[in-house]
Amino acid sequence: MKYVTLVITLVLTLTIFYVLNTKMGSLPPLGQFLNPVSGIWQNETDESISGAVSIPGLTDKVTVHYDEQLIPHVFAQNEHDLYKAQGYITAKHRLWQLEFQTHAAAGRLSEIFGEGALTYDRTERRRGMGYGAEQVIAYMKQHDPETLGFMQDYADGVNAYIDQLHPNDYPVEYKLLDYTPERWSIKKSSLLLMYMTKTLAGYDDDLEYTNVLRLIGKENFDLLFPDFFDSTDPVIPSNTDWSFIDVPQTPLPASKAVLDTIPETIAKPHPDNGSNNWAISDKKSATGNAILANDPHLSLNLPSIWFVMQLSTPSHNAFGATIPGALGVISGFNQHIAWGETNATRDVIDWYKIKFNDDRTQYRYDNQWKDVMVRVEDIKVKGRENFKDTVLYTHHGPVVYDVNFKSDNERSGYAMRWIAHDGGNNQKTFIELNKAKNYDDYVNALQHWNAPAQNFVFASTQGNIALWIQGKFANKWEGQGKFLMDGSKPENDWQSYIPKRFNAHTKNPERGFVSSANQHPVDENYPYYVFNDRYETYRNRVINDFFASKETFSVQDFKDLHNNNYNLKAAELVPYMLEHMETSSLSEDEKTIYNEIKAWDFNNDINEVGPSIWRQWYGKLYTMLWDELDSDTMALTKPKTYQTIYILKNYGNHEFMDIVETKDKTETAKDLFLLAFKAAAKRLKEIKEKDGDYTWANYKGTHIGHLLQGLPAFSRFDIPIGGDRNIVNATSEDHGPSWRMIVEMTSPPTGLGIYPGGQSGNPGSKYYDNFIDDWAAGTYHSLNFMQSDQKTTDIIGSQTLKPKQNE
């Protein structure tokens, strides 16, 4: 018996040894992962922030001071050393995130995750992400080798850090996924810029609109998706004089939409990607200093999207938030100006139907055949052979949909025309903003910006404020790009671009403030065609009403506005529904819920139940109203909130109110209010029985997840914060204010900032998520804008990066 026990023990030991040191499907060798010498435990300690490190290629020493928030204050003697240092430091704290996001941008996740990521990778390749990054590099090689050199400096800095790493020290995600970091390159930074462009300007509904137009007709389409809403409060004030514009809009050709059907479209970025920004002039400020605020609304992730730094040379000194992989400060300030961005939500993607010849080597254009360009995407797939995807390119751009991808038509395809494929030099905009001293410098920096279209807000220590809606925009004919176009007709091409000096902008407006919140950029008097149904319609009005409410404002007012939870959307519909809904059939439980929402003051605060009732009620109502636009056989889209509410109030007997499944009755808006309320009440009762209550914090359940969504131990859940989409505090379940910044333009400027994360990308570090609680509470951290490399009281460590001597 003893012998049998020994044998069993030996077999179990060998089995465990084998399992722990052998890859099992997509899992890493768990023995290596848990090894106390080289595994996850090596990632528990905080980053070193003192001593000296030798960096190849530096020409002079670089001093890095770390403050108590682990923000690095970098002092270099020239720009080449500065960007080497930025690359090195960013890699030191965010290496895995830095690299992983470019794998995602390039369509290379199958290398890490295997076959399950193949559709994603094919989509990104067919979207032309790698092609666009290559066009950026080609443009910069021709027009701006200096900036390209700075990008190489950044790459050299990243690689200097990677070269110093021992595999034991790789970030935990590499160990978990069982792969290793690869060397950084200029192309990786270009891919990061493409990733930013896709995130903020990769949303379009042309193909869906085409299907909707065919399904419901032009009259109904124009009702559901108007060019302008009945009430607009645009980014650029309505009284702006456009008489200086002397280049006319492209005239309308005799062209018709192509009413094709496509069953499925590629994944789009998060529909709530957006931001708020605003600035007040010195005359509207309680202190006499202009004040600027910015808060980009993006996915809430760990590690955070943002990394805060101070970047200084003898000629300039900038502070703020940057994105790992990008040079310079993206949203921040220097000694003279402050700047920030919101998404301008312009339509910069159009779609063309392409007709091929029999062997798909040519396509029809201008009554002749043109050769296609073939790009073979060789996709590495973990655990299996490479997948080769042949993508055809026309002069419009990549043919995303064809017989090989989401279509079965042998002789046609759909090509994407995207401004991001044109190349450009967005990186130079930030490099020059970091050094800008006045309004003219700011405007000159923006001239390099192509995409994504952004609302760049500006304030200076001189008291000036401004806002430019910047990008490279096609001068479209009226209606161009709203629907799928015939790619064989030259008149459907983009004929020219709006001269950038005619992009919509304002400086020191009479009202004393500028603001943007992803709303319509201009009113109907602007002389160029501008359309996008996704314009925001609520946050912007709350912000503008706030700044019209009194004569002067303080930094505290800015904080209050950032954290404003007023739900204007609900305030414009709930009273109408309560007034017009028949209540005689409500049960006692339903009456309780009815009285709860009736007493609500329309603030989405964490302890309120009104926001939860509203979310359920409106969600059920929206689904019932637009059931005509549900389809498994074609890609469709539905009207957005503002127009939905407009139609409910003004077209309550329209045929769209009728529920498709109820054949024996024709419903009206009044019927839908009651039916949706009862369905919502039923669901709320279930939530209460399961969770104890449906207060907003519990109902919404805001969480900040690790980029690898399957890692709850590296994530944060049940964060007590109010707000929601369409609210100034735009925090929903996993999306919202990703960097709140307020800058008062004192001399030098005084900055406040906070974001939902921490400076470190290491889940074992105390700096990994230490900002989240303050962010949720609406508090800010003072930003220590050092004016020299002399230590201040909050410096907790200093490091010297010095040139590496030739061995």
From TrEMBL:
Q: Where is the active site?
A: S275 (nucleophile)
Q: Protein name, please?
A: Penicillin amidase
Q: Name the Pfam families for this protein.
A: Penicil_amidase (PF01804)
- Give the GO biological process terms: antibiotic biosynthetic process
Q: Does the keyword Metal-binding apply?
A: yes
Q: Which UniProt keywords apply?
A: Calcium, Hydrolase, Metal-binding, Zymogen
Instruction: Please give the family membership noted in the entry.
Output: Belongs to the peptidase S45 family.
- Native source species: Aquimarina brevivitae
Lineage here is:
Bacteria, Pseudomonadati, Bacteroidota, Flavobacteriia, Flavobacteriales
Which residues of the sequence carry a binding annotation for Ca(2+)? D347, D350
